[in-house]
Write the C-alpha cells for this entry.
Amino acid sequence: MKMVAVDVDITPLVEAARHGDANAWDQLLRRYQLPLFTFVHALVHHEHTSFDIVQETFITAVRHLGTLRAEERFGAWLFGIAHQKCVQQWRRATRDRLVFDANATELPLEVAGPEDEAPSAWLVRRECADRFVSALDELSPAHRAVVVLHFLEEFSLEQIAAITATPLGTVKSRLHYAKRRLRERLEERP
Amino acid sequence: MRTPRQILLHRHRHAEPALDWLRRDALAQALPRVQRAEPLASRRKAWLPPGCLLLWEDAVRPWRFAWTGLAAAWVAIFGLHFASGGAPAPASSARVVTATPELRAELESQQRWYAELLDSPTEEPSKSPPRHWGPRSETRPAGWVKGGLPLS
C-alpha cells in the first residue's frame, strides 16, 4: 500500500507556493489531502461535509499563505485551518452548543503521564484494526482530534495545542486519556 | 501489524480520486487570484498605499464591465448636457416675478399691519409689591397680636 511520508521536507515547496507556483501547490496539497480528510472525517463523521471542509481548507490556505510565518509549520497551520472549520461546522450543526468541549472529560494534569511513546511504536494487529477504529469513534471529538493528530502527522504536543487552540496541559491529559482508552479496548477479548 | 496511521489512512483510501478532483478544483478557484495579485504586487509603486491593490483586486477588477458601463453612462449624460447648451434649468424657487403696483400696495399694507401688531401696547403683568427680604416680624401689619386676633 502506498503511504504518504510524514517526514518529507516541505519547506522548498512552501517557498515556491508563496510565489504562486501552481505545481508546488499541487504537490503540497496532494501530500496533505488524505491525512487532512482522515482528520476531518474523524471529527465530523460525515463524508460530504468532510469533502466540503477539506476543499474550504485548501482554498483558505492558498489565499492566506501570507499569514504563515515559518514554512516548516505549514502542516500544523493547514490542520489548524481544518480544525477551525470543523468547529464552525459543529457550531452550525448544534446551534452554538459546544458539544466539543462539553463531552471532553479532563483528567487532572498530574495524572497524565509522560507521552514519550512515539506514534509509530503503536502497532495494532491486522485483525484488531476494526476494533481500533471503533474505539477511536467512541472517544469524544476533543479526545479524537488530539489522538488523530498525534497518530496521523506525529505532531508535537505544542503543535497539537496550537492546532486545536487548547492549553498544552489539556492536550497532554486528553492524549493520555485517549491512548489509555484505546489500549484498554484493544486488550479486551473479542 | 500496522501502525494507527496506516489503519486510519487505509480506511479512507477510497476517497483519494475525489480528493484529487477536489484539490484541482480548489486550486483552479483560488490560485488565479493569487497569481494575478503576485505580479501586480511586484509592479506596485512604492508610494502606492497597500490597500489600493486589494481594493483594485476585490472591488474594481471583478466588476470592471459594470464600472465601464457606469462610466459610459455618465459620459453620455455629460455629452447630452453640453449638447443642449449647458445652461442650467431655472429652478422654480428662483423665478423673477415683476412687482405690480397692486402687489406692492398689498405688501406695504401687510408690513404696516405686522408693525402695528408688534408695536401694540400689551397688558402689563400685575405688579406685585416688592418683596421684603428680612424677618417676618418686620412685615407684620400694625396691631397684630401673636396667637390671637388683632386688637383693632
